[in-house]
Design brief:
Elements (H helix, E strand, L loop, with lengths): L24 H13 L7 E9 L3 H8 L8 E8 L5 E7 L4 E7 L11 H11 L3 H9 L7 E6 L14 E8 L11 E10 L4 E7 L38 E4 L2 E4 L2 E8 L3 E11 L5 E17 L11 E2 L25 E8 L5 E22 L6 E17 L2 E10 L4 E9 L4 E2 L7 E5 L2 E4 L1 E2 L1 E8 L6 E10 L12 E7 L7 E2 L8 E10 L5 E7 L13 H5 L7 E5 L21 H5 L10 E7 L2 E2 L9 E12 L38
């Protein structure tokens, strides 16, 4: 395949360029109809997941090169809520038929949790005498108790083998506007079989006090007097935004890409390519597909009711389902373009999340600048970035995922973490929790995201090099001791493919093309800069460590395979561990000059602050991909200077530097 192909031409699903478009509402209806005709849908069948089953990358690229267009296929995960039986179905929209139907072995993991199952929990608990007795012993009226149903993890608990389990915490809610997260009923937990609709166990470990102070930040009466000195900021683009959109394809400055949305992964970016200004605008691919393919939030509280807390919000909860419908001026600011997300509900009917994806431009300060001593040249250019984002709410936490494209070829992905802490009853001197309000605990935890980056740097023949800064001892060749160098390690095969970050040597990873060189004769490439945060803090022998092996290293490199989609495996809910990256890499496939996927684990280790309560100011976690020898020189020399009036002092002379009339933005 040549790199000149316009990889992001967009048309309908039946054309080569539309092969990767997300399912339409009509296609979701077709999936349900085809499964119904095949006798696979009964009144107790629920559609856990419906999404595009992407063709193999080679078939997609061949189609874009004029070859046959692959069949349009959908994947559906089905659950019979009366028996607990589940199936993984492949439906061909092209052939109007069910292609494969595989029963899911629940001992290797269950399908994700239904919203219907969450909603049924209250009724199941309040029909259980043991649970009601535990509430009564604490003086709690069930009328004022709400429930947080949670994924159970995988533990050798008697009576749970092969059953579909949810674990449940209670919170007290004093009135209709009262946030229950301020009043955890700690020391108490229920285990529920959601298929049998029965409580399998009530764990009543300790009658801990329920914290009293409310946390209702949404009520004016519980907030300080509003700040009156903030004047409006309005972002205007009088000539409109700089991007153009055709269906799901976008071009902006030198960038082109297309986007999709999936119930499991949320926002997907595809065919990220850059038109090289020094190569007559040749469109050069960088990433074939990018998404957040998994995340886990492991908690550190070892108590008998909480040791199992670790939530895979992608694989267990399908966090794309909970995408917010974004509101103009509040979530995004400026000249906004929104995209809707079309998903399936649990009965196989299409549902649309309006304005699920937000796209806009942001000014980003100085792009490059120099004032020269000799020539007197004084040049400055302003940077801007294209922002493509969505926000999802999973219970108490809210997560934003923001992809940034910059004029100089840089790509970033930033997670924004906000919402409400998951709370406990604080025990004085606890080594695994912070006290964030009187008697209110917030257990230590981590948020570990896995970005799946299907790389295509200048084409398919890629390799990864780990690059460290290296000190050189004083001696021959370095008589004054000022020299230092870098060490490059090429990752040859998957046996070497799991890599640790190391901030002490500034470790980075270069994704290079093994067949193409820049004008200096060196491989074209991109470099991954990681934030170098701690990996999973749990013990190596802990259950969560086996289930979330992807969190034990910051970087994983695999050879591309179309069925290797998720770093913790296909069926994460109640999975005992070992699936995903460790299984994918067991074959020890070659990685040097191959079609490779880079999986990057990033995210914060959170020792909650008092200031994170009652609602958390946004915390950030990100990674950056920068061109490294990809271009022949600075690729942003084509950015024009701003018109002088754009940078002129504001009217009225209130520049903050009135004495010299200079206005500094």
């Amino acid at each position: 395949m040549t790199t000149e192909l316009p990889l992001t031409l967009s048309s309908g699903p039946g054309t080569p360029a539309g092969v990767l478009s997300s399912l339409t509402a009509a296609e979701i209806e077709d999936v349900t109809r085809i499964l119904g005709i095949a006798g696979l849908v009964s009144p107790t069948t629920r559609f856990v997941y419906v999404g595009l089953l992407e063709p193999d990358k080679a078939d997609v690229l061949a189609a874009l090169d004029g070859g046959p267009v692959p069949d349009r296929e959908a994947r559906a995960l089905l659950l019979d809520v009366s028996t607990g039986a589940s199936w993984d179905a492949t439906v061909s929209l092209t052939k109007d038929d069910v292609v494969t139907l595989v029963p899911i072995d629940g001992s290797r993991g269950q399908v994700p949790i239904l919203e219907e199952e969450f909603e049924a929990i209250g009724g199941i608990l309040e029909a259980d005498a043991g649970w009601l007795a535990a509430l009564a012993a604490r003086g709690l009226d069930p009328e004022h108790v709400v429930y947080a149903p949670l994924s159970p993890g995988s533990y050798p608990i008697a009576g749970e083998e092969g059953r579909r389990i949810i674990r449940v915490f209670a919170f007290r809610m004093d009135h209709a506007d009262d946030h229950p997260w301020a009043h955890p009923v700690d020391g108490l937990c229920a285990y529920v079989d959601v298929i049998a609709k029965e409580v399998t166990q009530v764990v009543d470990a300790a009658p801990l006090p329920v914290p009293e102070e409310p946390g209702n930040f949404q009520l004016e009466s519980e907030r300080p007097a509003p700040l009156t000195t903030l004047k409006p900021i309005s972002i205007t683009q009088p000539e409109g935004p700089s991007f153009s959109v055709d269906g799901d394809a976008v071009t902006w400055a030198n960038w082109s890409f297309s986007l999709g949305f999936d119930a499991r992964e949320g926002l997907i970016l595809r065919n990220l390519s850059f038109a090289d200004p020094d190569q007559d605008g040749e469109v050069r691919p960088v990433i074939y597909r990018a998404s957040i393919a998994e995340m886990v939030v492991p908690y550190a509280d070892p108590s008998p009711t909480r040791y199992w807390q670790n939530y895979f919000d992608t694989g267990e909860y399908l966090f794309g389902r909970f995408a917010n419908s974004l509101t103009l001026g509040c979530d995004c600011l400026g000249e906004i373009r929104y995209f809707d997300a079309v998903l399936s509900d649990e009965f196989g009917r299409p549902r649309t999340i309006e304005n699920a994806i937000c796209m806009h431009e942001e000014d980003y300060g100085t792009l490059w600048k120099h004032t020269d001593l000799f020539t007197g040249a004084n040049e400055v250019r302003r940077s801007r970035r294209l922002v493509i984002s969505f926000f999802t709410t999973v219970g108490n936490y809210d997560y934003g995922f923001y992809w940034y494209l910059y004029l100089d070829g840089t790509i970033e992905c930033e997670a924004k973490l906000t919402g409400i802490l998951f709370t406990s009853s604080y025990i004085e001197g606890s080594p695994t929790a912070s006290e964030v309000a009187p008697g209110l605990g917030a257990p230590y935890h981590q948020h570990l995201f896995s970005a799946r980056l299907d790389m295509m740097v200048d084409g398919l023949a890629n390799a990864v090099e780990e690059v460290d800064a290296v000190r050189l001892p004083i001696g021959e060749g370095n008589p004054y001791g000022n020299a230092f160098t870098s060490r490059t390690t090429r990752i040859r095969s998957e046996a070497e493919g799991a890599r640790d970050a190391d901030a002490s040597v500034g470790r980075t990873w270069h994704i290079v093309n093994t067949e193409k060189t820049n004008r200096l004769g060196r491989p074209t490439g991109y470099v991954l800069h990681a934030e170098q945060n701690p990996t999973l803090m749990a013990d190596p022998s802990a259950s969560v460590t086996a289930r979330a092996a992807f969190t034990t290293k910051q970087v994983w490199v695999t050879q591309y395979a179309s069925d290797e989609r998720y770093p913790a495996g296909e069926f994460v809910n109640q999975n005992p561990g070992g699936d995903g990256l460790p299984a994918y890499m067991a074959a020890d496939r070659p990685l040097d000059g191959e079609d490779i996927v880079l999986w990057h684990t990033f995210g914060p280790t959170h020792f909650p602050r008092v200031e994170d309560w009652p609602v958390m100011p946004v915390d950030y976690a990100k990674f950056t991909l920068k061109p490294y020898g990809f271009f022949g020189r600075n690729p942003a020399l084509n950015v024009p200077a701003e018109a002088p009036d754009h940078c002129a002092p504001g009217n009225g002379g209130h520049s903050g530097h009135g004495h010299d009339g200079h206005h500094h933005h």
